[in-house]
Amino acid sequence: MQIRTFPSRSSLLFMVALLASAPVHLKAQAAPSAQTATDRPWMNPKLPAEQRAEMVLKQMTLDEKLSLLHGNGMPGVPQWSMPLTALANGGAGYVQGVPRLGIPPLIMSDAAYGVRGSGANGRYSTAMPSNLGAASSWDTKSACAYGTVIGQELRAQGFDMTLGGGVDLVRDPRNGRTFEYTGEDPLLAGTMDGAMMRCEQGQHVVGDIKHYVMNDQETGRFFVNAIISKKAMQESDLLAFHIAIDLANPSAVMCAYNRINGAYACQNSYTLHDVLKQQWGFKGFVDSDWGATHSTVASSDAGLDQEQPMADYFGPRLKAAIASGKVPMSAIDDHDRRVLFGEFVSGIVDDPPQKSVVDVQKGFDTAQHVEEESIVLLRNQDNVLPIDPSRVHSIALIGGHADVGMISGGGSAQVDPPGGNAILPPGQGATRWQEHIWFPTSPLKALRAALPQTKITFDPGTDLASAEALAKQSDVAIVFASQWESEGMDLPDLMLPHGQNDLIERVAAANPHTIVVLESGSAVMMPWIDKVDAVVEAWFPGSAGHKALANVLVGKVNPSGKLPITFPKSDDQLPHATIPKPPAMPRGNPLGTPITGPMSYTVHYTEGPEVGYKWFEAQHKEPLFPFGYGLSYTTYKYAGLTVDSASKTARFTVTNTGNRAGTEIAEVYAQLPHGMEESDYKRLVGWKRITLQPGESQTVTVPIDTRTLKTYNTAQTAWDFAPGAYAVYVGGSSASTPLTATLMIH
Ligand code: NOJ
Fold this sequence. Notes:
Elements: H1 9-21, H2 23-29, H3 49-59, H4 62-67, E1 93-95, E2 106-109, H5 118-121, H6 131-135, H7 140-156, E3 161-162, H8 186-201, E4 208-212, E5 225-227, H9 230-235, H10 237-248, E6 252-255, E7 259-260, E8 263-264, H11 270-279, E9 285-288, H12 297-302, H13 316-323, H14 329-346, H15 360-374, E10 376-380, E11 394-398, E12 406-407, E13 438-439, H16 443-450, E14 455-459, H17 464-472, E15 476-483, H18 500-510, E16 514-520, E17 534-537, H19 545-554, E18 602-604, H20 613-618, E19 636-644, E20 649-656, E21 662-671, E22 682-692, E23 697-703, E24 711-713, E25 718-720, E26 724-731, E27 739-745
Parallel strand pairs: 2-3, 4-6, 5-7, 5-18, 6-9, 11-14, 11-15, 15-16, 16-17
Antiparallel strand pairs: 1-2, 7-8, 10-17, 12-13, 19-20, 20-23, 21-22, 21-26, 24-25, 26-27
Bound molecules: 1-deoxynojirimycin.
1-deoxynojirimycin (NOJ) binds next to β4.
């Protein structure tokens, strides 16, 4: 990596732009100039980030310090327009730098599964599979490749800060942002999100992990008061954040819109000050979600460092609060030290972004690889899959716009498809908020390319009789069904919308070899499950989803993904049968609405730490598909588990008992000693992806991650590790663990 020192050409241009646009601002500060290398010892990349931050801080005027603590508006949202908004590069926000000291501005873009806003900006960016999809690979190398591509594409577009990194636990699968998160288990979610963000920040962009914390539903998201005990929160949602933050060392953490036990997430001294900063020792800065700042003094005291995207509370009001002594200078210095640390530690000071043309092919290849590892085979009766062209001569491809593309997730995560929405005529321009967007990734074309000898005919599925007729005359029918999701709304339930269940039933009745391909953001309920031969979960599959899917359907790739969330049979199996409606909801585009609401709207997370499979197990409920579940075109046998209590490892052998090579995700769970609170379910403590040739066996050793076995002691603000016998389970899903042994903790 080429390291350059400031001022770079782009920062000089930035200074010129700044001088032209805001001369008063700079003149008013009358700051001394610091131009030469010896005047700027903090520009030495060999020094630790903390030391560099401290050195710069000492040089800064009050106005410079304040300028780092707030945004400057958001392009495209008139209510959020400020004099410097245009400098946001068409992204989501902009924070001034301190050019005279070599401190670059923060130029931010949303980038959950790819860089947002390409349409409006006339740029290209790769869509990776949804974050939940990628979590189904349980592969940290894939997660790293995912983050690397996004980091590189951000820089190529001129951004130096990402707003990705969603790790809120999937506590309710109807949460409309489930696709942006990495599942229901703190260890899996935290590890996968942390791996993505570690590698994204590794490309020298300021990394961000969000939405801290308990932002587990979108309904009433600007004001919902999430009620949960500290103990339960520590052992579930906070644990996922902690694991991700530990792994990624992100420069920033974005606090959420919602309230937690009464206090807004961005002025919640328990979650921000006590937990994030004191208990975990987080050294970076906390930025507010867009419009989630509600106060000056209370927020600063609680640990918010930077208001986004405006300066309503951390602009003139913060300055006034300093003047009146309500906010001490030491607090301002702490906020700034954190922002500066984040800039140094991420590498953006030494290696600022340079606009360039992205490596489009690399993006496609990575997106395809991640999707190939992430597709989950949920059902495969009579080995209908993979499709064997020597037996299958005709295929009916039905519904889901499978002739032109595959669907994607909406909201601020939305990546714009090349050529515009594939289901609309070309030239539609930028995507609109909450529009259902299809990428031009045609399964029809990909399957025709993969099966050149097979007759593949498409029917849109809008006329049931026509779909039925085509299904009847084909050897195999493949129905494409989608469940669209977006920020700003929750799913009413987990049923496929728009009559898709009827379509599947009708086709399945007409063709005994019906395969359903799901493009979903979350879990889906399947009243027709016993009537179809196969179900393939492709998630929101990204820029090369069609190729990955075709490779799986024809067996070029043996599926290996495993569910990162439980699929319930019905909504009433969930801890809450419905998501309660708030008394009043802000209307219209949520980005432009006043962000307040009734304090009375509460959600009681009575299930506590029993999120997802833990709830199902503790309640003795049998889901449709359990957490960790996924089939392969081969079969695996588990044997010979031994647990070494001293080294806290599990050792066992997995054999490929089928006739195809494959990769098995072997899962290790453990259960608290009998009689302890919450000992009625097991917890994921580790896993390993094992690639095996037909007949091959491998003995592997998996470390037992004890973070999920400790219990939080609220009175002592400490974690207890109870002595006793912990049952250890090993197998291919949370519901199939043929091996057991004991871990003794003394
Ligand atoms: C609100 C969303 O909740 C957040 O995820 C996003 O980063 C900001 N808007 C900026 O677009």
